[in-house]
Amino acid sequence: MKRHLPVAPAPASPARPRPSFPAKLAPTSVQPAAVKTQGASAFKSTPLAGPDRAGVKPSPASVQRPPVIIGDGPDLQAVRTAMVRKLQAQGLVHPAVLAALNTVERHRFVDSALASQAYEDTSLPIGLGQTISKPNVVARMLELMCHGRTEKLGRVLEIGTGCGYQAALLSHLSHEVYSMERLRGLHERARENLRWFRLSNLHLLLGDGMLGYAQGAPYASIIAAAGGNEIPEAWIDQLAVGGRLVAPAMAESGRQHLVVIDKTTTGVARTVLEAVLFVPLKSGVA
Ligand code: SAH
User: Fold this and answer.
1) What is the pLDDT of residue 71?
2) Which atom of ligand 1 is nearest to the CA of 165?
3) Could you read off the pLDDT of 151-187 as tens digits, one per residue?
4) Residue 216 pLDDT greater than 60, yes or no
5) For the domain bounded by 34-275, which CATH number is listed?
6) pLDDT, average across residues 227-252
7) Pocket test for ligand 1, best of 110, 157, 159 (most atoms within 8 A of CB)
8) For a substitution probing ligand 1, which of 123, 145, 282 has the most ligand atoms within 8 Å of its CB?
9) pLDDT, tens digit, for every residue of 28-57?
10) Ligand 1, closest atom to CA 225?
């Protein structure tokens, strides 16, 4: 395997027309971005690579949490590449998924005290009782999402932004990403973490992901990082025909399993895969 796997840059325009919301602002600054509130909607959208707005104060998260200061040289690239090699040895094969994992700097998404563990195959706490999944699980879900396709996916919905790591990976694998988080503190932390990456095709939404995000539907894929008893109907409704949903959910065994749902012209096909352990899917915004 080559030391530096290629990752195609995000395209200037998506494959399909984007919904009018959220507004995209020109990527001219890395100052704290304004939070745009959408009329009567319960959602808040954050343009990740936008200029600050006059009169908008940095969020408390940005004030209290200094950026992770850690070396950014070839050593960390080598560590990341070693992580990808291990994933390949474990049977992960999708070139674009591996390239994204080789590119996105996982250490920027965890507390500086945990940064040295960022490239180990382990889950890590990200605050508010939530965790970032271990790279093996993230890669597995992304491979399932891509299901052998080599071209980028169209629009993708992620439920559970958490620290924003998987959202950053998704932005390399698809034309447009909507990522929802129900916990305001994590939504804001993800915004801080992601600002450095300037991913203009990634939109963070504060809202209850159990309802999905109808304004962006239909989605080529929906991927959830939190598991409930059932897959919410809204997700299946918002999935495009030909689209694929990947989520943890309770199986007949009474344990949480990875579930894949493929939507076709004739209905939906549900495949239950290996047992997993994700944080619970909860309703409402907190
Ligand atoms: N993909 C994330 C993983 C975060 S853990 C990452 O890379 O860090 C799962 C996240 O799902 C948690 O942050 C949790 O708050 C969130 N979550 C749980 N129920 C949710 C819901 N109904 N809507 C949106 N987010 C939800």
Assistant:
1) 52
2) 7
3) 999 999 999 999 999 999 999 999 999 999 999 999 9
4) yes
5) 3.40.50.150
6) 97
7) 159
8) 282
9) 222 223 223 232 233 444 444 433 322 233
10) 9
194 lines ligand 1 (CB under 6 A): no
Centre of ligand 1 to C-alpha 54, Å, is: 31
Residue type, 155: R
Mean of per-residue pLDDT scores for the chain: 81
pLDDT at residue number 147? 87
Confidence (pTM): 0.80
pLDDT over threshold 90, residue 285: yes
For the question of residue 133 being annotated catalytic, the response is yes
Contact between 132 and 126 under an 8 Å Cβ cutoff? The reply is yes
pLDDT tops 50 at residue 220: yes
For the four alpha carbons of 19, 54, 184 and 117, in that order, the dihedral sign comes to positive
Could you tell me if the CB of 142 is within 6 A of ligand 1?
Answer: no
Q: Is the CB of 33 inside a 6 Å radius of any atom of ligand 1?
A: no
Please indicate whether residue 130, judged by its CB atom, sits closer than 6 Å to ligand 1.
yes
Show me where the domains of the chain are located.
34-275
